[in-house]
Structure formats: C-alpha cells, structure tokens
Amino acid sequence: FMDLINTTMWLVQPFLLPASGGRVWSFGNDQSCQAMGFFTQLGSSVTLYNTYLALYFWLTIVRGMTDKAISKRFELLTHGASLIYPLATASLGAAFGIFGESSLGMLCWISEFPKGCYDSPGIFCLNQPIGWVFTGAPYLGALIFMAVANTMVYFKVKNTLRASDKRAHRFTTMPANVSSSVSASSLDTVTAHSTAKERRIRDVRTQSFLYVAASINTVVWMIALRMKEGPAFGVIGREEESSVYWLVV
C-alpha cells in the first residue's frame, strides 16, 4: 500500500505543482503541493520496509532464526516503526507548513523554511536539517544496513556451501577399497550438486548486489539534489536548474 502511495505521488508531482510557479503541465495550488509533500514524506516508509526485508534475510540466514521467533520479537516493532515515523514526520511537516514547492526538480516536499530565509542572512534556514531528520539520516542508515546485511548473507551462504563441497570432496576421494563400492551415478550426483552450489553462490552474490544497488539508486539522487538546493551549495535555484539537469532527471 505504501509503495502504491509513493509511486502515485511521483507520477502526479508535475501536475499538482502550484500553477503560479510557471511549471509546464502544472495546474495545482499551494494546498495540493502541501498535500503532496505530506504523502511524499509518508511514502518514505517504503525504504524502511525494504530495510526490514534485509533484516529478515539476515536474521533467517545469518542468525538462523525461525519465522516464528522473528514474528514474535520483531514483527510488531518493524511494522510500527515503518508506519509511525513517516506518519509522524509527515504530520509535523503539514502542521508547521514545512512542505512546499522545491527549487530544484518538480517536487513538493520540504521547501524553504522559514519562508524567506534564503534571502535573509540573519535567518537560519531549517529545511536541510529537517530534511536530514525526516528522511536523509534514516535513508542513509537504511542503505548502510542493507549493504552490510546483504554482504553478510552472501558470505554466510558462500561459506555454508563451500563447507558442504568439502564434505562432498571427501566422499569422491575415498580410498579405493571404499570408493569401488560407490556407484558412478552417485559420484555424478555429487559433482552435479557441487556445480549447482557454485551457481547458487553466484546467484546470491548477484541478487545481493542488485538489491543494494537498486535501493541506493532510488534515493541517492534525491538526497544529492536536495543538498544542492540548500545554502551549503549557494542555494542553486530554478534559474540554475540546467546545471544539475542530470540529477533532476
């Protein structure tokens, strides 16, 4: 459900931006932009759920926990955290008027806050610190955990299958008086299993890499774009948007 909300928000963002901003295709207003900011923040729970999926694989494969034990100890906590935190931060953003049209890209999320702080040297802009608390820090923590957890899963599978291969190798190199009683079909079966295990190791490695890479690819560009939008990078505004077009895309 959260994935549906998140995807829908990205699809309708260009159309529900405030029409006063002069964006192509936009016919929304400030209220629609604030609503999109709320649901965009709420959709950040998708990344948290992906993190808990990585946690599940780590607990089952590396720690050897059963589904029943995981459900008893972690299920309520993980579902609660992945829903409550995004809902709480989205509600705070809506209540304090933090959401608005971003300077870079077609997005309604955490905008200039307090309003006018970019043009007032005496006022400290809070949008970037808020962005790190709302999404940046949780996202980076999630990505680091997913990378570490998937690496540990890969090596666990690799070591387990290699240990099994060693046992199979001892079976195929038994003394002649013993191996003579072993049928050729049994030796072929061991060899086939060894080949299948090597393929499984490669598959787990590929899956782990693609899982982490896809997760990083979904958020790293948005984080980079939002960082360039803030005062630390000279407040790159819409007029300089072409200079970071590759990030916007």
How would you describe the overall organization of this protein?
There is one protein chain. With 249 residues, the protein is mainly α. It is 70% helix and 2% strand. It has 8 helices and 2 strands. The chain has helices spanning 2-16, 30-42, 45-62, 67-95, 127-172, 176-179, 184-229, 245-248, and strands at residues 99-101, 108-110. The protein has a two-stranded antiparallel ribbon with strand order 1-2. Strand 1 (99-101) and strand 2 (108-110) form a beta hairpin. Helix 3 (45-62) runs antiparallel to helix 4 (67-95) and helix 5 (127-172) packs antiparallel against helix 7. The radius of gyration is 25 Å and the shape is elongated. The mean pLDDT is 75.
Summary keywords:
249 residues, mainly alpha, two-stranded antiparallel ribbon, 70% helix, elongated
Structural class, from secondary structure content?
Answer: mainly alpha
The major pleated sheet works out as: 2 strands, antiparallel
**What is the end-to-end distance?**
26 Å
**Which regions have little confidence, pLDDT < 50, spanning 5+ residues?**
none
Name the strands of the widest sheet in spatial order. 1-2
Outline type: elongated
Task: Tell me how many strands there are.
Answer: 2
| Total helical segments | 8
Rg, rounded, reads 25 Å
